[in-house]
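Hi there, hope your week has been kind to you so far. No rush at all, and the record is pasted right below.
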Amino acid sequence: MSLTTKNGAAILVSCLEQLGVEYVFGYSGGAALPIFDALYDSSIKLILTRHEQGATHMADGYARTTGKAGVVLVTSGPGATNVITGALTAMMDSVPMIILCGQVPTGLLGMDAFQEADVFGLSMPAVKHNYLVKKTNDVPRVIYEAFHIANSGRPGPVLIDLPKDVTSGKYDGDFNGTLEIPGYHVPHQPTTDAVKSLATLLNKARKPVLLVGHGALISKAHKEVLALAEKLNAPVVTTLLAKGAFPETHPLSLGMVGMYGTAYANKAMINCDLVMSIGSRWDDRINGNPKKFCPNAKKLHIDIDPAEIGKIVTPDAYAIGDAKIVLQQLLPLLAPENTSAWVKEVEDFKANHPLTYYKEGGLKAQQVIHAAYTASKGNAIVTTDVGQHQMWAAQFYLNSRPDTWLSSGGAGTMGFGFPAAIGAQIARPNEMVIAVVGDGGFQMTLSELSTAAIHKLPIKILVVDNKYLGMVRQWQELFLDNRYSGVDMVGNPDFVKLAEAYGIKAFHIDKAENVDSVMQQAFAYNEGPCLIHAEVIKEDNVYPMVPAGACLEEMVICAPTEKMAMPEGST
């Protein structure tokens, strides 16, 4: 079919092919029929999901493991509104995504037509950019612009609303590939003076800490981060989303910092004389109280997004630009530091406050997650849902490679973990993928068991079942006198039988002495997905913990003996 005889949907799919799209995750419907029809003859593989939210999380998992934009295709109305949660998740965590939404014909816009929704207006705060396309000839330009915006600078989701008459209409344009996006500028290169100002302060520091954020992973700066840490002999802490940006098995690694970070990471932040954020936005889970955050330390900031500079913490020096490029320019300006006394002090923090848990009293989630770490030799891609299991996984599953930890950070989206694992497994078919999920979040998107089964994806689905919405229950126990409200997951299914109903092999663990043997059996099975249902004790809490709105000095390392007050204004 010649270019002039293609309709809007066909030219759209041709653009996706030219841009190297391998997979589209979606759910069909009337307003998107022309696009689904065009995919029929395409080299692009359609992954038919069981819910639109699942499609967005699969695209998200695909994007985080590959660095390429994940592509979602849904229909109008509720099909489009069901992607908002996934769009927000990607937006908060700076994940590139293209969301294609069918829409009613342009002549029916604003007429309350069947399955019409103002997707442009509804999605605006949840995406980096969005479009409502009203002319068929605009389709190629919009597609190329969308991919450029989604992938460049600070990545994010871009939504394209496509009325049915636009995708079914004749394309007779002549798009030459030139992009003109006035006002959109990406500051890749830092200024020389900015890099020198970072170097000056770093060379004076005697107790430095590197705070590595998700931006370091996005910019592929993990090698530069390692070189910087070793040159300065500086301890490294990471945010939740940056696990794997620095090997957590490295002697200088202190693991995750902040609300549920390691005690030694938080103590290093309290006692350092300089902290440099590399692609971290100093968010509230790290910095509960900006007025008391690292009060005796110089603060340096590297970020590609100018809006993040000074938004929460006012830095003493900063560089705006791609983290990899900034570090490459910074490294030659630095002298090796005499930090041996500081490293010894940090090693004492580790020795005196190790991550631990009580092994008596029933099966513990920490033991189950550590057993998964051992069975996988620490070499899997791990996705998580949101809650206690997420924090225990962050603490007890050490990631030593980039792009092997996928978790919803900013939005805290329950239901993310399992479909994200599907996207990651599709992206990396030869790698082991483990989805660590809670019984609450898993039930939000468990319909995607069908998707995993159909494609015979060898995902290990570890359901950590405490029959509670555990993190909320923990807060109710600590701050609200055990007034448990809306957290008891009575009515949970038999997850083993549920998996088997989908044709998925399943295992059950409820005793500590059986954990290792069952985990070995499950991890030896690779003929398709398998589910491991771990029934852990109902009431256990994540420690260390920094109450929301509190400073790191107020960290609670173990179960308190007195009632705790809910910090004012906390979330």
